[in-house]
Design a protein that fits this description.
This protein has about 140 residues and is mainly alpha-helical. The chain has a single domain, classed as Winged helix-like DNA-binding domain superfamily/Winged helix DNA-binding domain (Arc Repressor Mutant, subunit A, Orthogonal Bundle), CATH 1.10.10. It has six helices and three strands, in the order ααβααββαα. Helix 1 crosses helix 5 and helix 3 packs across helix 4. The two termini are about 20 Å apart.
Amino acid sequence: MSPHEEELVRELARVMLVLPRAVDADMMREQRLPLSEYTTLMHLSEATDRRMRMSELASVCSLSLSGMTRIVTRLETQGLVGRERCAEDARGWNAVLTDQGLARLQEAWPAHLSSVRRHVLDHVDAADLTRLLGLMRRIAT
């Protein structure tokens, strides 16, 4: 690896650590909603019938099933999410976004957008945005 390549890999690793922490801190300060809970609500809001199998939700949120279970339990106690048995497989559970959960997501969305804009988008000009998006997609796949 060349020194320049190593520098890129190190900076990418730093962004992967720093960015979620910065957005989480903003979300906690402005909305008292951790990024992990916001992300869970967001994915449920985009799912068919606002429901997802717990294992699938854990996967799209890049969490373990036990970690997702803890988050859903916290959201459930706030009335933002419910749980129900999977119709297709009685062994599995679905997380279901409630109307109250959707309202909470909509309330928190501007703070999330502002944070992401401040920490990411304000640092990328329009010419670089398309190229960066393509690079990120290639790296992710």
